[in-house]
């Protein structure tokens, strides 16, 4: 087999189809559409055509009812099995569908605006254009819709569900509604007489094909395709890349669709499949490939900081695996991305605008990545913070810009005494400032995240446990400020991790949450009603020093049996040595670390697994108490101990759930940070930026995003 062939006459020469996400009740404007229609020169004048085909997608109606069928419920973010059918509690009805017909085909509707835009651009470009293809999305007929409305004079209200009937008439009603919608599209289209457009076909939004005792999309799609083809139109599909879909793709043209484009999903998930694999599957199945790009850092994707590198791979792979010129392609970009790329100050974003244009043109040439050396990727004059993260094991430094991008990063082991630590901290700050200077960045401040009790007002560490040796009465702010002309803020590492989650991470829109940082020790930070809890002295959320064993060993904080003595990186090693003598010979070695215990558990060591389960349970006991007191909607866990894996975290979660008061536990989500070892750095940077941070720092209570809405 080969890819879905581009440039076929029966597809009116379809090559590159761009997805245009519309928002309910927000008509497209010529100003927005021109970026998709024409390539603009540096003065904003059209000098060539851009996409040849346009797919309009709306996911919601004005009423709030759903147009789409599936929703990403995934927690794993693995890309495999993250999508499920959603039985919408809010199914659309005939009035909604009429609204969509008007949105597409009404006076001043999307197609009218597109037609006018193409007309205006051709005046500028000065060459005739082959009619641009248009593909329209069919609304999904939800099986929760029991009274869609009547589509003929009979007054018979269509029922899509199996309530009061069997599956066959339910499916028949769904087909009738889709057929009615199709016929309306064709009727209105022929009345409108657009000059520059060709109606290529219809798009099916659900990304898999479902069949069960209450839904039969298999029959529906087979029959619907006949209806669509009978009007001289094509039926298009863009399925997600999961092994579940492969068998459907293999024979899709025999049953359901005329043209399919496979989504690699490579841009959204840390783990998963490569573009090489996706293009091989597409090629094997006679499908096209979908290009994917999100510009906004605020999008809930797990590869945020890698998106430039990953998108470069979509472009390069188009040459390497031949889909740039050998396949029809679909282009997903998130709303307004192309326009923002064109207008962007960051040369990397701006360059992608031209690269996409060359790709669509078939003239893109492979570029190397990781992209250009660091100095080229900064917006000149950008502001940056120098951030320090000091823990019991590692001292880290990062230079972070005001969008949360870590531009520079270095890490050393935490030195063994106060003077040496202080010396290293100052040296690292100077290294960060030198980096700013060399790269034309304006430093706005220094943020320090440190273990121990911190006097936030004075910028001093008051004391800490033995995990950071001698780390008491340290005037860090003074020490740093005496050497450089820049302001310094200091906060406890638990607080900083919480700030990072709130600003950049899993708790972005969450007002009540507990953040737990699991490293050498256990730190915490608590948000109550949208504010970081500081208490009288900023000594809040010392989760690590909650006792889970009244007769346990003495902790350097003065208490006995603190959970940190069992469940932290240092505690696991201590516990393994003192109370788990069976932990094979490793326990006797000087070098035993939490990481090794995790590795042993992964390789099946029963004692290590047992130790981790018991440790997770201890942490769960402590945290259940916090849950009862603060009633958070989320616990987010960060720190290197995330690498311990299932034995520890499953025991933690089940203990919290079984020991916290039931309705409180039911309202709770437990999430794992995706900020990796950057949480402390990002939190320190955000604290240094304070209110002056642009973009993501403007934390607001965000309602679920409407399609087509963007973050800026
Ligand atoms: P700090 O306490 O310096 O802030 P980290 O968050 O880096 O440090 O945590 C250090 C602890 O995490 C050490 O106890 C180390 O053994 C443990 N650790 C590091 N990597 C892993 C891993 N992949 N799995 C489990 N534990 C790990
Ligand atoms: Mg730490
Ligand atoms: Zn303690």
How would you portray this structure in words?
There is one protein chain. A hairpin with a 5-residue loop joins β2 and β3. The longest helix is centred in the first third of the chain and has 26 residues, at 167-192. Mean pLDDT is 88; it is low at 73-78, 370-380 and 694-712. This protein starts with 15 loop residues before the first strand and ends in a 23-residue tail after the last helix. An eight-stranded parallel β-barrel has the order 1-4-7-8-9-10-11-12, surrounded by five helices. It has 712 residues and is an alpha/beta fold. It folds into three domains: 9-360, TIM Barrel (Alpha-Beta Barrel), CATH 3.20.20; 381-505 and 686-712, Nucleotidyltransferase, domain 5 (2-Layer Sandwich); 510-673, Nucleotidyltransferase, domain 5 (2-Layer Sandwich), CATH 3.30.420. α1 packs across α3, α2 packs parallel to α4 and α11 (337-343) packs across α12 (347-361). The site of zinc ion has 6 residues, from loops.
